[in-house]
Automatic annotation (TrEMBL):
InterPro entries: MASE1. Its main location: membrane. This is MASE1 domain-containing protein. The lineage of its organism: Bacteria, Bacillati, Actinomycetota, Actinomycetes, Kitasatosporales. The chain crosses the membrane at residues 12-32, 52-75, 87-107, 119-144, 156-176, 196-219, 231-250, 270-287. Keywords: Cell membrane, Membrane, Transmembrane, Transmembrane helix. The keyword Transmembrane helix applies. GO terms for cellular component: plasma membrane. Residues 323-338 have a biased composition (Basic and acidic residues). It is found in: Cell membrane. Residues 310-338 are annotated as: Disordered. It is a multi-pass membrane protein. Pfam families: MASE1.
Amino acid sequence: MVGTENLRRTGVVALQVLAVAGCYYAAGRLGLLRNLAVEGAVFTPIWPPTGIAVAALLIFGLRVWPGITLGSLLVIMHLTSLQPQVLGNLVGNTAAPVCACLMLRAVDFRTDLSRFRDGLALVFLGALTGMLISASVGVGMLVITDRLHGHGLWEVWLAWWVGDAMGVLIITPLLLALHGARWPPPLSRWQEATGLALITCGSVLLVTFSSLSVLFLVYPLLIWTALRFQLVGSMLCALVTSVMATVAATERAGPFEGLDRIEVMLKLQAFNGTMALTALLLSAVITEQRNTRRSVERACQELVEVLGHLTAGNTPPGGPTRPDGEAGDRAGQKETGR
């Protein structure tokens, strides 16, 4: 029995590792569909594999880290041939999400993002701090192999770091929310979600490709989706908006028309970053307030039940009862006084 149980656990872990590797590779291929060139180096404004890697480690545990390495290797092999510097990239791509996961665990991070502090931890530890490793190692390997010179070092490093961080800010909370969501939602919620999705897609398409600089019109949609559907709704809205903004930026259309490469990168990353931060932190605040309200309502309901029992002269459920000895003593005192 013990051997069978160990074999079953090994098989489950192997399947999880392969699933993580497959998702990492597929997300990498999707991320490479839209890219920008800065100082001769190509980068993606949103790198989804980092978000998948952090979410997989938080959900399945650190045991699936080989899947991140394998997926990263497959993505690199798609881009170039195997060379000695590939090992450094593999180390950076694996170490960054692993360190992010360890830092989140150290601060008692909850995967349901039910507290405002969980949102802050994911932003500052999981995304901004953890992805410093992958960006530094990746750019360092470009410098070592003479593919990047010193004058463009900081621009490429910033683009790499922000792209990896955006993957964590958008993809990780969305996957965590979908993993913890209750399925299937009520039919009424599906109807509202469908209508809101149609409105969001139409508005985002208009805003991101309009010649007017009206990207700020996305924020009312983020607030609406966060109020009605919390983390799942707001992060889906942020993902759709980020994808459409990235498409517009790579085609130099809409608000990105007439800008040079550096200006496009800065404007796009500033918009994506502030939007993702707004969606994530607002959803965390709303979820925390709703949980607090439910706790208060539950406590009030229990208090009403206790007061009802006391008014009726009954002992409330779970309340204290007088010992038999004390009741007998009082009965004896009444009988003696007659």
